[in-house]
Amino acid sequence: MDDGQEPIDPLALERQVCFALSVASRNVVALYRPLLEPMGLTHPQYLVMLALWQTTPLSVKALSQLLQLDPGTLSPLLKRLEANGLIRRHRDPQDERALAVVLTESGRALRAQAELIPPAVVERLGMELDELQRLHGSLTRLIAATQGVGDAGTTED
């Protein structure tokens, strides 16, 4: 029976989760940019600092796992943060193979400025806090659901 409605195109751009996530990610990161610039941080550097404000010291390996970044991507971020005097990298005395990352006094002091960022982001988004918390929960479940999915059935030459 024809009800006169157009069939839904499963490949319509606006229906794709990947498209919505991509645009939302770019827009949210852009929203952070003017808040982070006075602190001298990029968004990826801010994520590193968030991890270190939560737990310090951290090994580069632990930081890489926590941020879900490969070491090749993390290394330049750490070099820049170290050059800016916010962190220090040194060999772990318990394991000379491991590189530990610690905050400097300047890095610890920057936390006070950073505490103003989350409420400013919420205000700029203009969304209710409970809606943002539900979205965070959904995204966290999505991340968990996608962990390792891309690795299934792949082989290396």
Question: Could you list some keywords that capture this structure?
Answer:
single chain, 157 residues, mainly alpha, Arc Repressor Mutant, subunit A, 3-stranded antiparallel sheet, 7 helices, 3 strands, globular, disordered C terminus
Description of the molecule:
- The chain has 157 residues and is mainly alpha-helical.
- It has a single domain, classed as Orthogonal Bundle (Arc Repressor Mutant, subunit A), CATH 1.10.10.10.
- The chain has helices at 17-36, 43-54, 60-67, 71-83, 105-114, 117-125, 129-146, and strands at 58-59, 87-92, 95-103.
- The protein has a three-stranded antiparallel beta sheet.
- The chain is globular and about 70 Å long.
- The N and C termini lie far apart (53 Å).
- Mean pLDDT is 91; it is low at 152-157.
Give me the secondary-structure topology.
Blueprint: H1 17-36, H2 43-54, E1 58-59, H3 60-67, H4 71-83, E2 87-92, E3 95-103, H5 105-114, H6 117-125, H7 129-146
Antiparallel strand pairs: 1-3, 2-3
Any low-confidence stretches, pLDDT <50, length ≥5?
152-157
Count the domains.
1
| Major sheet size, sense and barrel closure | 3 strands, antiparallel
Classify the helix fraction into a percent range: 55-70%
Mean pLDDT: 91
CATH class: Mainly Alpha
**Strands in their spatial order, largest beta sheet:** 1-3-2
The CATH homologous superfamily: Winged helix-like DNA-binding domain superfamily/Winged helix DNA-binding domain
Structural class: mainly alpha
Short account of what is shown:
This protein is mainly α and 157 residues long. The protein has one domain: Winged helix-like DNA-binding domain superfamily/Winged helix DNA-binding domain (Arc Repressor Mutant, subunit A). It is built from seven helices and three strands.
